[in-house]
Amino acid sequence: MTDLKLMELAVEARKNSYAPYSDFHVGAALLGKSGRVYTGCNVENAGYTPTNCAERTALFKAVSEGEREFTAIAVVGGKGAELAEFCAPCGVCRQVLAEFCDGDFRILLGTPEKYSAHTLSELLPYSFGKADLK
Ligand code: THU
């Protein structure tokens, strides 16, 4: 799986985004260590707080199907039909990713035309995780 293909799968997943309140549509494609890709989109709710981000949709789909180790995620987002240059994962999604992903987990942000690779430790430094509870 190439980085570019993962970005393209995130764009595809974004088409299913349900965002009638914000009109901000996000897609994600998460690569499992098995080689399988799990896609997700944001799913909003009239109660606002039950809204689920694209990254968490992808991760929860993966975990619910038995995959627990991951190498990379691609994220794209933007208002209406337009893709923004950059859509960074929210803090909650960074924390949820940290439950299953190591610091060197790769996070691809941007568009298929122009994207950059980051690591989870870069986006979530000094994180609190399962090791702290031992
Ligand atoms: N959103 C995501 O799906 N992922 C992010 O990383 C940022 C925000 C969604 C949540 C909400 O449906 C909309 O974008 C506006 O915040």
Task: Describe what this molecule looks like in 3D.
The protein is α+β, with helices and mostly antiparallel strands and 134 residues long. The chain has a single domain (3-133), classed as Cytidine Deaminase, domain 2 (3-Layer(aba) Sandwich). Helices cover 28% and strands 25% of the residues. The protein contains 4 helices and 5 strands. Strands 2-1-3-4-5 form a 5-stranded mixed sheet. The longest helix is centred in the first third of the chain and has 12 residues, at 3-14. The mean pLDDT is 97. The structure holds tetrahydrodeoxyuridine. Tetrahydrodeoxyuridine binds next to strand 1 and helix 2.
Task: List the total number of helices.
Answer: 4
Number of strands: 5
| CATH hierarchy, class | Alpha Beta
Distance between the termini: 35 Å
SS-based structural class? Answer: alpha+beta
3D shape: globular
Low-confidence stretches: none
**In total, how many domains does the architecture comprise?**
1
Average pLDDT: 97
Regarding quaternary structure, how should these chains be classified?
single chain
Second rung of CATH, namely the architecture: 3-Layer(aba) Sandwich
The name of the CATH topology is: Cytidine Deaminase, domain 2
Largest sheet: 5 strands, mixed
SSE string, helices as H and strands as E: HEEHEHEEH
Gyration radius, rounded = 14 Å
Fraction in helix: 25-40%
Strand percentage lies at 25-35%
CATH superfamily: Cytidine Deaminase, domain 2
Strand order of the largest sheet: 2-1-3-4-5
List of distinct ligands in this structure: tetrahydrodeoxyuridine
